[in-house]
Amino acid sequence: MAFDSLSEKLQGVFKNLRSKGRLSEADVKAALKEVKMALLEADVNFKVVKQFTNTVTERAIGSDVMNGLNPGQMVIKIVNEELINLMGSEVTDITYGTGGAITTIMMVGLQGAGKTTTTAKLAGKVKQRGKKPLLVACDIYRPAAIEQLQINGKKQDVEVFSLGDKEKPVKIAKEAMDYAKKNGFDVVIFDTAGRLHIDEDMMNELAAIKSNIDILNTILVVDAMTGQDAVNVSQTFDEKIGIDGVIITKLDGDTRGGAALSIKAVTGKPILFAGMGEKLSDLEQFHPDRMASRILG
Ligand code: GDP
Question: Is 258 among the annotated ligand-binding positions?
Fold first, then answer.
């Protein structure tokens, strides 16, 4: 499960801390050193870890905490609050169009991250909100991508717009918008091409879609299991095309949690949802407070 190994380590540190009555500054510092190690082992970005432990140390060594009735518990509370801060404190949602404007969502990401699956999962979430989503197949390069989107669209009972793999993505996107307007769709989700590595062509194509269509949400899909690579990919996509948020997939298999804990702190962009399995219903809104509770047990 997500965060299991990190959780186990932190719980060990805190059990020790809780068992002590009064705490000395040295006790707190020793515990936070162990927290630091656990976060680094979980593959959290080292700058993020440094900032995090500095903030927690500063707060924990304050006289209110040290002279309080239950200092161990207070230190744990501070760690919990700062973990929540790290992940962005608040739940962030899709930006919906106002005044009758269609909500446009462009899904981007590297091949294998789970983009096509997540696109269909997201369509299901949007439908639950009482909206009428249209999926658009703009990934014309991976042979099975269009068919995969169609199969998943059918499972979600969501229509898929495709012009096959011979037209340019910008043309497909434009025609899809016309189709959506004529047919009363209020959310349009574009599945774009993923490549194995970030390259110039890929970025140019995504930028071309963005300059032709009024995209309200550019959402990057990253694989939690890739740890700091996911963080680097997020940073690069944000620099090159600008992203509004991230969906982190495969959190169900990520026992470390380094990407989930670093992305907001490094890029400033929030995680909106987390993929928790292969089924199309396995997409959860990302709640920083619930994630922190999951880690601290
Ligand atoms: P794309 O190349 O980015 O479009 O990736 P796909 O959507 O084809 O997904 C790649 C693989 O990851 C598939 O086997 C998916 O079932 C799997 N996958 C996607 N999201 C999740 C997730 O949240 N959890 C797990 N366990 N598997 C996932």
Answer: no
